[in-house]
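Long-time lurker, first post. I've been practising inverse folding by hand and with some scripts of my own, and I keep getting stuck on stretches where the structure tokens seem ambiguous. Below is the full token string for one chain I'm working on. Before anyone asks, I'm not after the true native sequence, just a reasonable design that respects the backbone. If someone could post their per-position residues I'd love to compare against what I wrote down in my notebook.
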């Protein structure tokens, strides 16, 4: 299969064929996860360490479940109480981890580029579970799988990404992936949260929901990342919902069969109306959660295959 990466640090290095490979393998894991016996031995004998320097519920649980279903020895490190809090540098942490000979390292970090730095210092496969405002590759891949399964294809679709684009690594990774797969992407939100420089990604920018959602196939909502805001980006949450929160009236501008997505966690009544979020005919938010486990299984499986091949080429020596 066409997947040549040593790490999964972002969507940017991936070729369209590699994206397709991850999604195809993930499809097989969706089927496995729906069986009574959900286990595989793809990572049997391998060690997976999850390092989350930011709090996470969905992503960390998803990676942990994915590793265990593939047969890995999974360890979660409590980074909030780690040696880094005592003054240890990220590089020293990487060297310490390296001495434990892990095979897969899953990292979420508040600073852009930190995961890439770790990958340069360890002898194992590194997966970026989100770094600052940079990228969140597995989220974009699970979103792509959700779209492909719902729409039957992942090209030449009209897709609107709405909300807090400025602070969103999810938006960035999705923009890159959807662009590589020849989709037409629109960004919709207030000018304070959708900078004009995003036009460099080849997308269209709208500050009006009715215009931005007109005839789209997919509506992807993003939460307001208040923890990353240090100024007055919106007048109030009530005003924001009135203008940019997804409700039935705004969704009516999209195609009648348009699907609604959200990476979570959701702020109901802020960026999305609860009735829309729970609409089983339009919302695929729960499907996104399901696809997340399958995509992370696929990514770790493919990286482990490459790691094993590299080690065999080096006569079993850790590389």
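-- Answer (accepted) --
I ran through it position by position. Result:
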């Amino acid at each position: 299969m066409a997947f040549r990466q040593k790490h999964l640090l972002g969507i940017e290095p991936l070729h369209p064929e590699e994206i397709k490979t991850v999604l195809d393998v993930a499809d097989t894991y969706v089927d496995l996860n729906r069986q009574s016996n959900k286990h595989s031995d793809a990572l049997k004998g391998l060690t997976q360490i999850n390092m989350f320097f930011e709090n996470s519920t969905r992503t960390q649980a998803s990676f942990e479940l994915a590793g265990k279903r593939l047969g890995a020895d999974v360890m979660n490190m409590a980074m909030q109480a780690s040696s880094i809090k005592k003054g240890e540098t990220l590089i020293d942490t990487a060297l310490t981890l390296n001495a434990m000979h892990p095979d897969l390292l899953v990292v979420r970090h508040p600073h852009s580029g930190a995961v890439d730095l770790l990958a340069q210092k360890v002898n194992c496969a590194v997966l970026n579970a989100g770094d600052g405002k940079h990228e969140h590759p597995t989220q974009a891949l699970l979103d792509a799988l959700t779209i492909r399964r719902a729409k039957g294809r992942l090209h030449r679709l009209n897709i609107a990404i709405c909300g807090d684009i400025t602070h969103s690594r999810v938006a960035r990774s999705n923009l890159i992936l959807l662009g590589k797969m020849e989709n037409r992407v629109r960004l919709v939100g207030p000018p304070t949260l959708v900078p004009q420089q995003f036009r460099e990604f080849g997308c269209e920018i709208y500050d009006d929901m009715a215009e931005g959602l007109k005839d789209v196939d997919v509506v992807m909502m993003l939460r307001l990342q208040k923890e990353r805001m240090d100024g007055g980006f919106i007048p109030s949450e009530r005003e924001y919902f009135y203008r940019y929160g997804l409700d039935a009236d705004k969704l009516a501008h999209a195609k009648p069969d348009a699907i609604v997505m959200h990476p979570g966690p959701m702020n109901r009544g802020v960026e999305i109306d609860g009735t829309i979020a729970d609409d089983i005919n339009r919302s695929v938010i729960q499907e996104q959660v399901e696809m997340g486990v399958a995509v992370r299984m696929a990514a770790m499986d493919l990286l482990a295959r490459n790691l094993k091949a590299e080690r065999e080429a080096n006569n079993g020596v850790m590389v």
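A couple of notes from the structure itself: The chain has a mean pLDDT of 92. The radius of gyration is 20 Å. Happy to go over any region you disagree with.
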